[in-house]
Amino acid sequence: MSVGSTVVRLRHCLVASGVSSTEDDNGAFWSMNITTGDDSRRFGVGDEDVKLIVAAPLDHKVQPQYNLTVELTNTGDKNVLYVTLVIVVTDVPGYPPFYNKRCETPVLPDIERNGYHTLVSSDGFYASINGEEITSYGDYLQNFLPRHFWANFILKGDCSLQFAVSLRELGSDLELIAPVLKEQGRVELKCYDQEWKSKGKITAAYISHKDDLPRWVFSSQFRNEEGAQFFFAVELNETWTTSSYWLRCGANVPLFGGPVLFEWTFEYNITGCPKGRFGLYCDKDCNCENGARCHGFNGACECRPGWRGRACDIPWPEVVI
Q1: Which of 135, 134, 247 is nearest to 191 (CA)?
Q2: Alpha-carbon distance 287 to 291, whole Å?
C-alpha cells in the first residue's frame, strides 16, 4: 500500500460497541491515537473518518507484521475504547526496489530540479541499410515517439531496460520495414555493444503476429495506442556503464528484391539526474531520507549506516567501523 492509503476504517468498531460513530450536536467526535505497536511510525490516523492510514513506506523484510493498539476517545463524554489491529505486510516481488551498484548513476550537483534533464544523454542515433545511413537524430529521447511513450520506459533493478511502443503508422525511420512486417508478421533485431557482446533485442510485429511479442508488453504498466497496427518491444540488459556507450541492433530483412542489413545504432552516456530525482526523464521524485543515495534507474535507496527501510527512515542500530 502506498503512503496515504487507508488501511482500515474503525467506525464499525464503534457501532459494534453500541456507541454513535458520528459527530453529535455539541461537536463531540471520536479522536484516535496509536498507543502501542508502531515504534517506527509507519501508520497514522484520520480523526474525521476514524481510519488508520499508511504514514510511511512499509517493508516486509524489515517488519512483516504490526500488532497495533488504537485508542478511540470521545471528545465529549471522554468515553474510551481500545481496538487491537494485526497488520500483515505482504511480500511483493520487486518491492522495495533493489539498489544495484553495478548500474549506479551519477547525481548532478547544484542543478535546478525543475529544469529539463534526462538520465541518459545521447551522442547520436541513426538508422542504416547495409551500412548506409538513411536517417539520424541528435538526441533520440527528444523525438516524438519516446516523448509520447515516456511512461513505457521501465528501468529495472537488475540494470535492464524495457520499452514498448504501439503505433497506427510508422515514421520515416521505420516506414521502410512496414512492408516486411506486413509480409512476415515479425522481425527480431539482435543488439550488441562495441565489443559485440549481446545486449538484448528489439522485437517488431504486425498486428497479425502481436501474440508473438513478450507478454510484458501487454501488462497494465505499458500504455498501448488504440487501433495500433505495429508493435515494438525493446529489451536491453547490463546498461551500467557511465562511459560513452555504443549499441547497435540489426537484422537481415527482405527489401529491394533481396536481403539487406537493417540496423539502428544508438550512442549515449549515462549522465544521471539532479539530486532528488530519478527515471529516464528525471521526472520522478526520490523518497530517500537521512542522507541515503537515490538510484537513478528505479528510485531505490542506499541507506547510510544505522538506517533501514524503503526510504531509509527506520533507525537500525549497528556497529560502524
Answers
A1: 247
A2: 11
